[in-house]
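Quick one: structure for this chain?
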Amino acid sequence: MKYAKLLLSLVLTIGIFYALNTKFGTIPPLGKFLNPTSGIWQNETDETITGDIAIPGLKDKVTVHYDEYMIPHVFAQNEHDLYKAQGYLTAKHRLWQLEFQTHAAAGRLSEIFGEGALNYDRTERRRGMGYGADNAIKYMEQYDTETLSYVQDYADGVNAYIDQLDSKDYPVEYKLLDYTPEAWSPKKTALLLMYMTKMLAGGDDDLEYTNVLRLIGQKNFDLLFPDFFDSTDPVIPKETDWSFIDVPQTELPASKAAVLDTIAESIEKPNPDNGSNNWAVSGVKSATGNPILANDPHLSLNLPAIWFVMQLSTPKHNAFGATIPGALSVISGFNQYIAWGETNATRDVIDWYKVEFNANRTQYKYDGGWKDVTLRVEDIRIRGKENYKDSVLYTHHGPVVFDKNFKGDNELAGYAMRWIGHDGGNNQRTFIELNKAKNYDDYVSALQYWNAPAQNFVFASTEGDIALWIQGKFANKWEGQGKFLMDGSNPENDWQSYIPQAFNAHTKNPERGFVSSANQHPVDENYPFYVFNDGYETYRNRVINDVFNSKDTFSVQDFKDLHNNNYNLKAAELVPYMLTHMDASSLSEAEKAVYEDIKAWNFNNDIDEVGPSIWRQWYGRLYNMTWDEFDVEDTALDAPTTYQTIYLLKNHGDHEYMDMVETEDTTETAKDLFLLAFKEAAERLMEIKEEKGDYTWLKYKATYAGHLLQALPAFSRFDIPIGGDRNIVNATSENHGPSWRMIVEMTTPPTAIGIYPGGQSGNPGSQYYDNFIDDWAAGNYYNLNFLQSNTVTDAIIGTQTLTPASND
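Got it. Here's what it folds into:
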């Protein structure tokens, strides 16, 4: 009996040992995860910010001063050491985020999460993310080995940090997901830049628009989806003289008919709210006589935060601002002489072509003959499963994303993507040069390297100049090219040439005394090239420009107020019209109370207001009712923009599209839809009131910053008290908004303030993980301590020295 008990105890011990060290589904091996010497408990302390650290490959010592916000101020003696230090420090504070983003960009999440991520990985591979990154590396190898050497320095710095880690020191996410970091490489930086390109220029509606055109015809399409709105306040002022442009627009081809195919489902698009604000005023329009510049990119509210703030200094330059883990240099920031920032220019840089294959899919039709396809086999590793091999066919247009193997059913045809992001180029060089730029000419020179995503680069200098360039490598398209699916066999549908960089739309020191962009239409109809996008912003930009046209001079405080402006122009342009034209006689007592609340609203989306909640419910239901014709099963479609919807509701209220599909026995007008939508909205608001106690904007919107692994609420922040919404200057919706607010006054040297919704550390156990969020929500800013020399000031709380490792 005694031996039986011993045997049973041994079996149980082995079973427990196996269970504690084995991953079951998404649950990590609990023994490893909870181990007191190597598990999660080792992640509770803050990062070390003092002492000496030996780094292989450094040529000289690098000094890193940490200020009270744990911002590293890096002083190196040369650029190679600078970027090696940047890689090391970024990995030190954000290693898991740094690596996870490039796994996502490369379509490698199945290696971590298993088969559930396979469809995502296939999409990214077929989108050509790795192909574009490979081309970027090839470009640098051929044309810019200096930049490539800096990218390698960054990689060496990341790897120096990884090599110093024991498993107990791995960020907690590695322990949760039970995997280990791998070596960094220049391709990973290229993948990170591809990820940026996808997020900011990966939206397109060619296939959806093709389906719409097929269903409603050209006349209705032109009414519902115009190229220009009746009220366009473009990025580049309307009075701009374009007579210096001497390259003509590509002529219309003999045949430009769209291919009226249909597709049931298109690939996932980036968040349509990805965008930004930026602006600058000249010294004449500044209260102090110094130009002032502001930037606030609108991206997902994540933890760890998208941005990591640093000062990067050598004897030849000194830059400060927001960096992106994985990319070199400061992305949005300033140096001793200039400041710069970016917004999404939302140009159409993705076109789709139908390609027809021969019987064995080795060739495709082109120009009356056949061209060979190129095969790229994507070998996708899947955790716990055999690898999945996806054969992606490439044409001269680009990858065939949709075919019989992926979201298509045509044996001998598919849809190929032409995306400027695939062309390689040298985007990293732009930021390296901006960090060193001293004046307007240097700024323009730096922009020449930028291909994609299309960006509005705002500029101000201590010399007194302000400017804004809409920069990217843009195809010189014929009128209407790229709006619909095109015939890939017709050479006239190819991109024939590119707009010369000097002819990209831009303005310097405009007479009005300010420049601004908020993702609106870049130019008016007088610009001599075809400019199109299917999602131009139409509200934030008008509020911003109205503010700058409202008085003569502006201060830094005015810039703060504008960053945090909650005025809802969209609601202001429709709610009064709806209230005037809606028959309210049938409203119940509860509905009347809601009606009185919306009548009293001043159109500010402040957290204690109920008007924004009523508006969101009312307009959301109204929009869906208006465009129920576009809810067609097994057909990918897009409905008109908000601006055009409101225009049609107010000016074409009896149009056939106001008639709801499900109520065929009646003929609705816009006025009828106002009432129907209001009643549904009021009913839902009453339910929300029961659930949450009230429906103030704070509780209704419930803004949160979610950990990149959305299944980790303990590492996220919820119910953040901030107003605003999409289409508002303070563009904060539920999980999206101003990801970095920066204001720079061009004193000598510049003085700046900034903040972002997160913290410098990627460690959820650190006091610096999310310590900026409350001040960010309240509209507060921190002084950015722009050190002019490698000396300790009162703001510095720790200094670390990176020294060359010995050869022993």
